[in-house]
Request: fold
Amino acid sequence: MTSSLTARITRLAVVAVAALGLAACGINSVPTKEEAAKAQWGTVESAYQRRADLIPNLVETVKAAAGSENQILTNVVEARARATSINITTDDLSNPEEFAKFQAAQNQLTQALGQLRTIVEAYPQLQSQQDFKDLMVALEGAENQVNVERIRYNEKAQDYNTEIRTFPSIMAAKIVYGAKPMEYFKAEEGAKQAPKVDFGGMAGAPSSAAPTN
Reply:
């Protein structure tokens, strides 16, 4: 074996060992887990948007049958406007202040929708409308989906946060990527479940519990 061939083999061996060392230090796993969490965040946003898209038709339907409930309807419309006006990027997932603003606005919309549900039983004519029942079923499904996707995001974020804090991946996280932990969704006190639709006297209407956080 010539000396040049030996030197070439040696260089390749060094490169291979270096590559394995970098992989072991999280050079690949850190961005992989980060992208997984960010992708799940996109799913969370889509779930929230689906809920928001249902609200205008729901408000108009209630207004037609329960126009005297103007304040509650106004609260829902304003809460929706606030919730849809706060958009955070994936970079903000590591920003506690921005993440808290987003979650607070979404929680306020959830509370406003809860107020809207309280007026349903007072309007039998509203409960009897198929369009209204369909909207309420769709809303329940949307809220349950929001809850599911939030849980999945928290799991992905926890996986990423654990990776960047654990040796040896912490080396790549700090030195190569400057990685920061992602924020989690936190359940409000007394909000372990997404609100359930109260169908009152709606015979045969489906109702299902939301997944717990």
In short: The chain is about 70% helix and 0% strand. The chain has a mean pLDDT of 82.
